[in-house]
């Protein structure tokens, strides 16, 4: 964080330097249009094809074929969920929280895409409904569904608690869920777990220090976040041990609730929709492409 008492003197032209206007790094106007209206229209007459209950302080995997919808639903009480997504056919193509943040901002809502990692970088899913879209940004600068946090994990916990051992952080929950689904051993599954979409979590950065903060999630039972799968997806969702993340995580102290994941198959594909094509970059990186 920035020092309260800097070592270096303020230059004489500091106000001029700081007055330069910000420029959006990645204007998204030229990204492919998600065709939200067509996606939403395809929900009429859809059929629920699976339902997964994620127990508190644990995680479960689920599959969402391309062209299907998935809802992450709050049940019983306020609860935050940590979401991982992989290509169902290739675990090395996974959700890229950092580039999604660079493209769409710190917190996601309807119309935003969840992008896959390099060297893939294509839409994995499109958010088609967010019942917490009314929240916007609060007076603390907080908002919901962030792509700035990473996931609670036992390594950070061990560092901050002088060696404390806790086994139900989202990182561990997601690792066990992926191991159970794929048959990989836990040490093999763990490296596939990645930075999450923090579903329903309310977060921001403290003014002045820039520290990452959380506050009680405004989510209530019945709220949901709905995604449309742009490719065949394997997902994993952890019901964070922080519960509504109003006080602490990485412990059993918070009240925790389950989350429900429902997958729906539309009667017809959305008008004009096709699965995400491969990224058009030629992958030469400026060197001649050699046939393999
Ligand atoms: Zn967590």
From TrEMBL:
A matching Pfam family: DUF1989
Organism domain of life: Bacteria
Chain intervals for the UniProt region annotation (Disordered): 267-292
Alphabetical list of InterPro entries matching this protein: DUF1989
Domain DUF1989 as annotated: residue spans: 53-234
Transmembrane segments: none
Protein's recorded name: Urea carboxylase-associated family protein
Organism encoding this protein: Rubellimicrobium aerolatum
Lineage: Bacteria, Pseudomonadati, Pseudomonadota, Alphaproteobacteria, Rhodobacterales
């Amino acid at each position: 964080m920035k020092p309260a008492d800097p070592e270096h003197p303020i230059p004489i032209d500091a106000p001029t330097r700081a007055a330069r206007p910000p420029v959006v790094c990645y204007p998204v106007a030229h990204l492919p249009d998600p065709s939200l209206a067509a996606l939403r229209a395809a929900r009429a007459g859809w059929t629920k094809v699976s339902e997964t209950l994620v127990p508190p302080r644990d995680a479960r995997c689920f599959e969402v074929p391309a062209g299907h919808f998935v809802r992450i639903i709050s049940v019983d009480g306020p609860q935050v969920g940590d979401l991982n997504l992989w290509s169902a056919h290739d675990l090395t193509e996974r959700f890229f929280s950092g580039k999604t943040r660079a493209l769409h901002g710190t917190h996601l809502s309807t119309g935003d895409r969840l992008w896959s990692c390099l060297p893939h970088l294509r839409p994995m899913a499109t958010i088609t409904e967010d019942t917490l879209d009314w929240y916007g940004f609060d007076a603390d600068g907080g908002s919901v569904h962030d792509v700035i946090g990473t996931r609670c994990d036992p390594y950070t916990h061990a560092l901050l608690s002088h060696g404390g051992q806790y086994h139900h952080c989202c990182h561990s929950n997601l690792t066990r869920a992926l191991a159970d689904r794929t048959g990989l051993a836990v040490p093999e599954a763990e490296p596939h777990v990645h930075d999450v979409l923090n579903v329903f979590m309310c977060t921001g950065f403290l003014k002045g220090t820039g520290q990452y903060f959380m506050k009680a999630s405004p989510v209530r039972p019945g709220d949901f976040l709905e995604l449309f799968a742009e490719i065949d997806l394997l997902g994993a969702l952890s019901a964070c041990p922080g519960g509504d993340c109003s006080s602490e995580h990485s412990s059993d102290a918070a009240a925790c609730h389950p989350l429900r994941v429902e997958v729906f198959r539309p009667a017809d594909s959305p008008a004009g929709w096709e699965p995400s094509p491969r990224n058009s970059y030629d992958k030469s990186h400026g060197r001649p492409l050699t046939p393999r």
